[in-house]
Amino acid sequence: MRHILSILLENHAGALSRVAGLFSARAFNIESLTVAPTEDPTVSRMTLVTSGSDEIVEQIVKQLNKLIDVIKLIDLNDGPHIERELMLVKVLARDAGREEIKRLVDIFRGRIIDVTDTTYVVELTGASHKLDAFIEAVNGELIMEVVRTGVSGIARGTRALNVGTPTAAPRSPTKPAKSGERAGRGAVNPAHLL
């Protein structure tokens, strides 16, 4: 089964490679991966698509939670969510074929964002299956190039993934974390004040 994991992680060098390394070391496949900073420049949001049984994904989540760079994560498949992907497609568009491409772009609610004498660059946004359907609808000989961003997703309703959403009982800001327990984001370690 396909799962979309949304992960908040520290925005610093090596964080992405540690997540990718975890998948590689355990022979888990990453179908798509997108990463970008959040509204907090010290935090990045990673959206990772993988496939596997519920047991395998549960193991992946446990391993990801052990990484020091990971702040929080959720499996978007655990509830209602919205997912989108952006695709740019460069197609040959000559003579009567130009009108056919325009018609297909309209049907799929895309946009032609670049035009030359012989080509169009088409922008499409939507669920992955919509983008796949567009590629299937266009004559394969006309497609020159395809670029896809990978899936981005967000939970619907009040469920949210952000640094301010508590995942555990708050700790006193002056009480250090117990051995083996990670200090909460924003918690003050008294040793750092000296």
Report on the structure:
There is one protein chain. By secondary structure, the chain is α+β, with helices and mostly antiparallel strands. The protein has 2 domains: 1-78, Alpha-Beta Plaits; 81-152, ACT-like. Chain A, domain 2 (Alpha-Beta Plaits). Helices cover 23% and strands 34% of the residues. It contains 4 helices and 9 strands; from the N terminus they run βαββαββαββαββ. The strands form 2 sheets. Strands 5, 6, 7, 8 and 9 form a 5-stranded antiparallel beta sheet that branches. A 4-stranded antiparallel beta sheet has the order 2-3-1-4, covered by helices on one side.
Q: Could you give a quick summary of the protein structure above?
A:
With 194 residues, the protein is of the alpha+beta class. It is built from four helices and nine strands; from the N terminus they run E-H-E-E-H-E-E-H-E-E-H-E-E. The strands form two sheets. Strands 5, 6, 7, 8 and 9 form a five-stranded antiparallel β-sheet that branches. Strands 2-3-1-4 form a four-stranded antiparallel β-sheet, covered by helices on one side.
Distance between the termini: 50 Å
Give the amount of beta strand, in percent.
Answer: 25-35%
State the helical fraction. 10-25%
Total strand segments: 9
Question: What structural class should be given to the helix and strand makeup?
Answer: alpha+beta
Secondary-structure element order, N to C: EHEEHEEHEEHEE
Low-pLDDT segments: 166-194
Overall number of domains: 2
- Radius of gyration based on Cα positions: 21 Å
Assign the CATH class of the largest domain.
Alpha Beta
Give the biggest beta sheet.
5 strands, antiparallel
The residue-averaged pLDDT reads: 83
CATH architecture term of the largest domain: 2-Layer Sandwich
CATH topology of the largest domain, which one? Alpha-Beta Plaits
CATH superfamily of the largest domain: ACT domain
Q: What is the approximate shape?
A: elongated
List the total number of helices: 4
